[in-house]
TrEMBL record, chain A:
This is Branched-chain amino acid ABC transporter permease. Keywords: Amino-acid transport, Cell membrane, Membrane, Transmembrane, Transmembrane helix, Transport. It is found in: Cell membrane. It comes from the Bacteria. It is a multi-pass membrane protein. Its main location: membrane.
C-alpha cells in the first residue's frame, strides 16, 4: 500500500510537470490554431541555458535567465517563422514547426553531446518521510510550483485583459481583430508564455531522481503531447487532467514493472501513448475537447 | 546526386504532356518532356555499370525512401492527414519480410524465429502486413484529422520501438536480425558475383533494377490514384472536409483507406531498405526517420508524386554526399572530431529547407516553375 501511495504521489508530481508543458502547447493551439511540434525543443533550450549558467551566476538567476531565454526563443520562432507564413492551411504550419524542431534539437543535442548536465537545483537528493511514505523533495517542489504556476496562469487567462484578448482570439480571430485586439501580439505572447512554462518544466524533468539534462530529456518532454491530446487540444482543463493522467499511468506502470514483465522492459515509457490511443478510440476529440461542429 | 535528380526531374514535366487531341506529330516531337524521360531512363539503367558500391547504395536508399515518401505524400500531402508514424510501417515491412522469409536460427545466443517462406512471397506478404497493421489503426486514422492524427501516430513510433527491442525472438532485439536475400524466379539478389558486360554484379547492382522497377510501379500507381476519382475525393477531403462529405465522399472510409495505402507503400520501402541494409536494426526506425520522411515531402512538394521523389533524393542523399566530401567541405568534419558531423549538417540543411520551402515556395521544389499557381 505504501508503495502504491508513493507511486501515486510521484505520478501526480511528474504529471503536474507534464500538465505545465501541455498547457503551453494548448495555449499556442488556442491562440493560433497551430500544433507546435517544436515544443520539446523549446523545453530543451530553457533547460540548456539554465544548465550552462548555474555555475557562474547561481541557480535562481540562471533559472530566471533560462525561463526568459526559452520565452525569447519561442517568440523568435513566432516572429521570424510563423508570422511569415502567408497561406491559410494551419496543418502546413504544424510541419513548419517540425522543421524548427529539427533545427533547434540538432543544435542543442550537438552542444550537449553525450553529457548529462546538472541544473544545479538546491534540493539535491533529499527525501522527506511522512507516515512511512517517502518522497523526494524535488517531487514536492515540482508539484507545488507546477500547481502554483497553473493556478496563476488560469486566473490570468480568466481575469486579465491579456487573458480576455487571448480567449477572444481563440473564439473568433476575425471578430477579435475588428474589436481592436492585436492578433500578432496575442500569438507572440502565447509563444512566449509557452516557452517560459516549458523552461520551468525542464527544471523538474531533470532533477532527482532523473540523472539530469541529456538527449533523452526531449523524449520525456514528448509525453506532454499525449497529455494534451487526450485531454483535448483546445481545453486548458484537459491539459491538466491529461497531464496528471499521463504522469500517474507512467509512474504506476514503471513502479509495477516487475508484475508487468510479460509486456517487456520499459513499459512505463510507453504507457502514456497507450492511454492516449485508448482514449482516442472512445473520444476522438479527447476527454474535454470540443467536438468539432461546423457551420457550412 | 545526379542519378536521383534526373529520375526526379523526368516525371515532373510529364504532368504537362497531356497533349490536346488535335496536336500534330511534329508539335509533339518538339516537346522536351519525352526526351528528358528517355535520357533519364537510359541514364538510370546504365548507372550500375559505372558507379561504385557506395553511390549505388546511396541511390538505393534514395529510391526506397522515394517509395515511402510517395506513400506519405498520398496521406499527408493529398489528404492533409499528418502522420508521424511512417517509420513504424517501414519497420513492419522490413521486419515482416525478415520474419516471414528468414529461417529460424540462433543469433548471439538468442533464438530467432523465422517462417522460411519463399522470399518473394515474404516480400508480398510483408507489404500486405503493413497494410493490415495500418488498417488496425483505422478507427483512429479515419476519425482524426490533420495534426491531431500526427500526435496520435506518435504512439505508433513508441509502440514500434518497444516491440522491436523487446520481442527478441521475432526481431532479434537490440542487435536486429539478418535479412534473407530476395530470390525471384530462381534469380537471387545476393552478393554472388554475376559478370554482365565485364562489370561484376553484386547485390547493389542487382537490387538497383529491382528498386527502379518498384519505384516506377509505385509512382505510376500513385499517379493513377491521384488523377482518378479517389484522388479528387482525397483532395476534396483535404480542402474542405464537410463539402466533400456533402458531395457524397465517405470521408472516414477514404481517410482510413489512404492510411492503409500509405502504410503499404511504407511497407514496400521497408522491404527494400532491409534488402539494401542486409540487416535490420530497431534503432533506425525511430522518430527521426519519420521526421525525415515529412521533410522529404514538404521539400519536394506536398501532394505530388514527383515532389516526393525529389524530396526523397534530397533528404536521403544529402548526408551521404556530405559524408563523402566532408574533407573538402568547410564547416563539416568527420564524426567525433568536435566540429559539425555530416549527419548533423544535413539535418540543419533539411530542417532549414523545410522552413524555407513552406514560407517561400508553397508547393515545394516540384512546382518551382509555377510559383503563382497556389496563390489565392
Amino acid at each position: 500500500m505504501t508503495t502504491f501511495i508513493e507511486l501515486l504521489l510521484g505520478g501526480l508530481s511528474i504529471g503536474s510537470v507534464y500538465a505545465l508543458i501541455a498547457l503551453g502547447f494548448v495555449v499556442i493551439f488556442k491562440a493560433t490554431e497551430v500544433v507546435n511540434f517544436a515544443h520539446a525543443s523549446l523545453l530543451l533550450a530553457g533547460g540548456y541555458v539554465t544548465a550552462v549558467l548555474h555555475d557562474d551566476i547561481g541557480f535562481w538567476p540562471a533559472l530566471g535567465v533560462g525561463i526568459a531565454g526559452a520565452a525569447v526563443v519561442g517568440s523568435a520562432v513566432e516572429f521570424f517563422v510563423m508570422r511569415r507564413y502567408r497561406g491559410s492551411d494551419q496543418s502546413v504550419l504544424a510541419i513548419v514547426t517540425i522543421g524548427v524542431d529539427i533545427l533547434l534539437t540538432t543544435e542543442l543535442v550537438r552542444r550537449m553531446g553525450t553529457d548529462v548536465m546538472s541544473l544545479g537545483d538546491p534540493w539535491g537528493d533529499d527525501v522527506v518521510t511522512i507516515g512511512g511514505v517517502t518522497l523526494a523533495e524535488t517531487r514536492i517542489a515540482a508539484f507545488l510550483v507546477a500547481g502554483l504556476l497553473i493556478t496563476v496562469f488560469l486566473l490570468a487567462f480568466r481575469f486579465t485583459s491579456w487573458g480576455v484578448s487571448m480567449r477572444a482570439a481563440a473564439e473568433n480571430p476575425q471578430t477579435a481583430a475588428l474589436m481592436g485586439i492585436r492578433l500578432g501580439r496575442v500569438s507572440l505572447s502565447a509563444w512566449a508564455v509557452a516557452g517560459a512554462l516549458a523552461a520551468v518544466a525542464a527544471l523538474f524533468l531533470t532533477v532527482f531522481p532523473t540523472p539530469g539534462l541529456e538527449r533523452a530529456t526531449s523524449l520525456a518532454a514528448l509525453k506532454a503531447f499525449p497529455a494534451a491530446i487526450l485531454g483535448g487540444l483546445d481545453s486548458t482543463t484537459g491539459a491538466l487532467v491529461g497531464g496528471l493522467l499521463v504522469g500517474v499511468t507512467e509512474s504506476l506502470a514503471t513502479g509495477y514493472q516487475s508484475d508487468l514483465s510479460f509486456l517487456g522492459r520499459g513499459i512505463g515509457d510507453l504507457a502514456p501513448y497507450l492511454v492516449m490511443v485508448v482514449v482516442l478510440l472512445v473520444r476522438p476529440a479527447g476527454l474535454f475537447g470540443t467536438k468539432e461542429l461546423s457551420r457550412v | 546526386m545526379s542519378e536521383a535528380t534526373k529520375d526526379a526531374v523526368a516525371p515532373a514535366p510529364a504532368g504537362a504532356t497531356t497533349t490536346p487531341a488535335g496536336e500534330s506529330l511534329t508539335a509533339r516531337l518538339r516537346r522536351p518532356a519525352p526526351y528528358l524521360w528517355l535520357a533519364g531512363s537510359v541514364l538510370l539503367l546504365l548507372l550500375p555499370f559505372y558507379l561504385d558500391r557506395f553511390w549505388l547504395q546511396a541511390g538505393l536508399f534514395a529510391m526506397a525512401a522515394a517509395i515511402g515518401a510517395i506513400g506519405l505524400n498520398l496521406l499527408t500531402g493529398s489528404t492533409g492527414q499528418l502522420s508521424m508514424g511512417h517509420a513504424f510501417f517501414l519497420a513492419v515491412g522490413a521486419y515482416g519480410y525478415c520474419i516471414l522469409g528468414g529461417e529460424s536460427s540462433t543469433e548471439n545466443g538468442h533464438a530467432v524465429t523465422g517462417l522460411g517462406l519463399p522470399t518473394w512471397l515474404a516480400a508480398v506478404l510483408a507489404v500486405l502486413l503493413a497494410g493490415a497493421v495500418g488498417g488496425l489503426f483505422s478507427p483512429i486514422a479515419g476519425r482524426l484529422s490533420g495534426a491531431y492524427l500526427g500526435i496520435a501516430t506518435l504512439a505508433l513510433i513508441f509502440i514500434g520501438q518497444h516491440v522491436l527491442f523487446n520481442a527478441g525472438s521475432l526481431t532479434g532485439g537490440f542487435n536486429g536480425r539478418p535479412v534473407p536475400p530476395l530470390s525471384l524466379f530462381g534469380f537471387t539478389f545476393d552478393d554472388a558475383e554475376v559478370v554482365v558486360a565485364a562489370v561484376p554484379f553484386q547485390s547493389s547492382e542487382k537490387l538497383w533494377y529491382l528498386a527502379l522497377a518498384a519505384l516506377l510501379v509505385s509512382g505510376l500507381f500513385a499517379r493513377g490514384v491521384l488523377r482518378g476519382r479517389p484522388g479528387r475525393a482525397l483532395n476534396a477531403i483535404r480542402d474542405h472536409r464537410i463539402a466533400a462529405g456533402v458531395m457524397g465522399v465517405p470521408v472516414a472510409r477514404y481517410r482510413a483507406g489512404v492510411f492503409v495505402l500509405s502504410s503499404m507503400y511504407a511497407g514496400l520501402a521497408g522491404v527494400l531498405l532491409a534488402l539494401v541494409f542486409q540487416r535490420t536494426v530497431p534503432e533506425y526506425f525511430g522518430m527521426i526517420l519519420s521526421l525525415e520522411y515529412l521533410a522529404m515531402i514538404v521539400i519536394g512538394g506536398l501532394g505530388s508524386v514527383a515532389g516526393a521523389v525529389i524530396g526523397a533524393a534530397f533528404v536521403s542523399l544529402l548526408p551521404q554526399v556530405l559524408t563523402h566530401y566532408s574533407d573538402s567541405l568547410p564547416l563539416v568534419s568527420a564524426p567525433g572530431t568536435g566540429g559539425i558531423a555530416p549527419g548533423e549538417a544535413s539535418r540543419y540543411l533539411y530542417g532549414a529547407a523545410v522552413v524555407a520551402v513552406v514560407l517561400f515556395l508553397p508547393g515545394g521544389i516540384a512546382r518551382l516553375k509555377t510559383p503563382g499557381e497556389k496563390k489565392k
